[in-house]
Give the backbone structure.
Amino acid sequence: MIQQRLLLQATVPAGLDRKETEAYLRLDPKRFPQHIAIIMDGNGRWAGRRHLPRVAGHRAGVEAVRSTVETAARIQIPSLTLYAFSEENWKRRPRSEVDFLMHLLCRYLKQEVPTLNKNNIRLEYIGRQHELPETVQEKMEWAREATAENTGMVLTLALNYSARSELVDAFRSMVDAAAQNGGLDHLEIDEESISQNLYTRHLPDPDLVIRTSGEMRLSNFLLWQLAYAEIYVTPTLWPDFRGVHLLEGIAEYQKRERRYGGLVEGGNSHGDHAVKKARG
C-alpha cells in the first residue's frame, strides 16, 4: 500500500492541490490535448449575481486566469490560448469598462511575469495589436520579451481579436506577397497557405476548446483553427473557474472519439456529439 501510494505521488506533477490531484489521477497523461483554447465568459453575470459592478467580475477573473495557466503548465500542456478581449468589445462595452480592461491587462502582465518565468511559460499574443493603446502595446512587448527564453508552455492571449478579421488579414498578406512576387498570377490559395498566414501559424490547431458560463457558441474565436476541435461547455462562470475545472474539461475530452470526418471501427457511437454541455 505504501509503495503504491509513493508511486501515485511520483506520477502527480508538483504544485497540484488535493482536488486537482484527484482529478489528475483519473486522466491519461499520454492523451492530453496539445493545445487548449478557452473562451472566458461570465464575468458580468458573476458580478451581477453579487450586486457588484461589472468591473468587479473582470478583477475576479484574474485569479481564474492565474489558476488555469499554472495548472496547465504544471501538467505540461504545450499550448494554452485565452480569449481575453475581442474586437467587438470596443463597440459593445462602455468606454469606462474598456479603459478598465486595458488597465487590468497592464497590471496583470506586470504582476504575472515572475510567475510565468517560474513556470517556464512563454507569452505570445494574437489579434490586431497595433490598434491597442500605445502604453498597452509597450507593456505587452515588455512581457513578451521577459518570457521569450522560456521553453515550456506557450500562453497566447487573444487581444483585440476577431476570427473574421484574422482571415481577412491572412488573405491580404497572401495577396501582398503575390504582388511582390510577380503579380496575382502567382497567388496560390490552399489550406496550407492560409494556415501559414494566420496569427496562429506558430501553434498547432486546438484539440479542445472550453467555454465557460454555459453559452453554446464560438463568438468569432479561432473559426478556422477549431474545425476539428472538441468543444466542452461548462456552466461555471469564468471568475469561479480553476485548475480543477480545466482537468474536468480534459477528462471529458478523453472520453471522445476523435474522427476528423472518418468512422470509428466497429460502428462505435461513442463521441457522436461534438458538443456536450457539462452537468452542473
Q: What stands out?
A: Confidence is low (pLDDT under 50) at residues 1-9, 267-277. The first helix runs from residue 2 to 11. The chain is about 45% helix and 15% strand. The chain has one domain: 32-256.
